[in-house]
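Attaching the record inline, Q. Sequence:
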Amino acid sequence: MKLFIPMAGKGTRLRPFTLTCPKPLLQINDKTIVEHLINQISSKLTAQIDEIIYILGDEAYFNSNIVNSLTLIANKYNAKTKVYRQLDQLGTGHAIMCAEDSLEGPSIIAYADTMIQGQISIDSGVDGIIWVKKVKNPSSYGVVSLDEKQNITDLVEKPQSYVSDLAVVGIYYFKDISTIRDELKIHLNEKLSPGKEYLLNYGIERMIKNKKVFKSQEIETWMDCGTPRLLIESAKKIMNSQINSKVNNSFAKTGNVKITQPVFIGKNVKIKDSTIGPYVSIGDDTDISNSNIESTLIYKSVKVSNADIKNSILGAYSVYDGSNKEIFLGDYSQINDNEYN
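Structure, as predicted:
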């Protein structure tokens, strides 16, 4: 089984945290977003993922360090690594076709800003599977339309009238991905109207018209990491699922320290006279003192003091000594409000 992960975007909605780090490599607890995705898929499959194909943007942003990090992740799952580049952002279909040389055999496509929890199983009797989640407002999503046999008949983007409440989460299985490769090759030869893109859905819709059988499979939890607030909410769900897992929660404690689970604490963390949790993730080499912190992501090598924060994100190597209740502080940034009080 091959796993294709398109991740050429620059995560502009998650700035400032994605100014130097691609969104899929942002950390939640002990793993990056993309590793959570790979783990969630591989742990549910009976088939072995033999190769992970990453589709990245330009080398100025997705540099050799990023490639090395992604290779190490694939190595953890005993999978080979292949990297392709999407230098022009021309749509999801274009992204997949940037990996044209690898488009053959049983494959899964999974977008890197998607995380899931729940069943992932492959029905060898169908040509494709699209994973979905029931939503309350289907007009805000792409949804699948089903016939009486529960086969997918259409993909409808943000329907104004009701089609179904099964939203596409961004994970797809193909019994032989070369079939959609051939359809997308035709699509990419078309001249697009201004503002239009080459879409993966085009290839799926062409396959369905050619009598290929696609089924939907509903997952339990769908987590979106597209904005800082969505990232925090997704982190909460990850922490709830790992509350009984053995993670490194050892740290240097000084004075009165209270930890309310779920909390993830990285290596070489120091905490003094502080209340931490619930739903706090603390990166390696972080120093916290005289603070109350809840529902917050703190990346590595951060110094926090005299803070009372909630629903916040503190970027790597940042320093925060302030009075804000909610704060989004980018990497290497510094706020020392209390110096002036």
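The chain has a mean pLDDT of 88. DSSP finds six helices and 26 strands in the chain.

More tomorrow.
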